[in-house]
Write a structure and sequence with these properties.
Its main location: membrane. The chain has 126 residues and is an all-alpha fold. The chain has five helices and no strands. The chain has two domains: 94 residues, no CATH class; 30 residues. 74% of the residues lie in helices and 0% in strands.
């Protein structure tokens, strides 16, 4: 069982990396880019839709929602292009992780939080 879980996590990680590559490829349609980028950012982000400390439901997004979103995103990218990015992600599995990617994800979340605060502030400060 633990080996199956590790394999599942490896496949998810590879697919998210492939989506990240597809989102940055100019040959990917714009709607697929937007969805792939959103899914990759969410998967790589330390912030969850449903916090993990909530019993049972906390892991719902990682176990059910994220794989479904990845499946939809991979179908939005043209099949030959997705195969190319999956192969590139598989080749990159053993290499170290990108600090630039981490900085990008943290920056996106900070900008989103700032925009939300900026939008909510006039409504709450009344």
């Amino acid at each position: 069982m633990p080996r199956r879980i590790k394999e599942w996590a490896r496949v998810i990680r590879r697919d998210v990396h492939a989506l990240w590559l597809a989102a940055r490829d100019p040959r990917t349609p714009w709607y697929a880019k937007v969805f792939a980028l959103a899914i990759a950012a969410y998967a790589l982000s330390p912030i969850d839709l449903i916090p993990d400390f909530i019993p049972v439901v906390g892991y719902l997004d990682e176990v059910i929602l994220l794989p479904l979103a990845i499946m939809v995103a991979t179908r939005l990218v043209p099949p030959d292009l997705m195969a190319e990015h999956l192969a590139a992600a598989a080749r990159a599995e053993g290499r170290p992780m990108s600090r630039a990617g981490m900085v990008f994800i943290v920056t996106v979340w900070l900008l989103a939080a700032g925009a939300l605060i900026w939008w909510l502030w006039p409504r709450v400060a009344r």
